[in-house]
User: Fold this.
Amino acid sequence: MNQEPEYIENIFSQFQVPGEFTQAVAHGSGHIHNTYLVTWKEKKKQKKIIMQRINSYIFPCPNSLMTNISLVTDFLRKKLRLRGVNNLERRVLSIIPTHSGQLFLRGEDDGYWRCYRYIENASTYDVLETSEQAYEIARAFGQFQALLQDFPSEKLATIIKNFHDPLARLDKLRQVVEEDPCHRLSPCKKEVEILLSYAHLAQKIESLIQGGSIPLRIVHNDTKINNAMLDNQSGKGVCVVDLDLVMPGYTLYDFGDLVRTGTGEFSESEQDLSNIKINEDRFTAVTRGYLEEMGEYLSTPELENLVFASQLICYELAIRFLTDYLEGDPYFKTKGPEHNLERTRTQIQMIQTIERQQEALEKIVQTYV
Ligand code: GN1
Ligand code: MG
Assistant:
């Protein structure tokens, strides 16, 4: 059982929050950190903040992690202020420091904790309901990237090396298949075979990068739809969150992950594989929203590879989920022993449906470039 809520009050008291702790409840559906919505009282008024126990298996250097986030959010805030944007506390994630001014706290449990201001009146979605939402989320991520185009990249530490690197991920899968450390290989031999048969996708991105056609840019690197918040009334994009991996990278992965997560009417581990296809209206909305903000910056090879990118990220995720399954789920949070295998199967269907829908999707991209 998770004991954290019991000592979270003590952690809370070490951050610059001027009031009394009321309660902490688990929040959101991220696969990595433990996130809590904490309510507290200031002069009888109930208020909220977000507290997270950072996953130190995945992020062992909280100092660089939080320094990156602080640099990026300061930069975004300054830019938006100059543009006359109001309500900056809703538009950019704000770190709440500890009493001693640190960006995170090392708790007595040896965990690393951080605190963010809670963004009122906005929500995230794991599965979208409309194309307008897809458009707003893609636009929010596009704008986020556009604002960071002139961010001095040398200031950012590399948080996870080779994060998006399907070839390296494939090598790791091959190695884990060879070792089969948890004796889980027999139910997923077919999935392994399918993924090995798509190795050309990993080789293609490698040649594009090596050939110099795809530039490094500051990107978000985790543009899953539930990492952007929409306003509860207007439905407009409010704020991009989960800034852990903002680093120099390839914009194709950001676009691809918007398609992977924002164009289907099913969850990331949908078990009825016949439901898995790209809704073309939503694909249109994602493409339009993203290119409205980022289109002017993208090179021709980037624009020509948007559909490929969508397939590629599903491929990378399929490899990562299957590797994690074979290793006994040390990385992604799971809701049962088969969860990572179910996620793998969903991603494989995505790869295949993008193949079938490719012509239609390319046509949609053509209308916006
Ligand atoms: C993780 O933190 P979250 O749930 O937004 C993962 C992403 C994957 C995603 C798959 C640091 O994202 O790379 O695309 O799960 N984050 C990390 O749902 O590995
Ligand atoms: Mg996240």
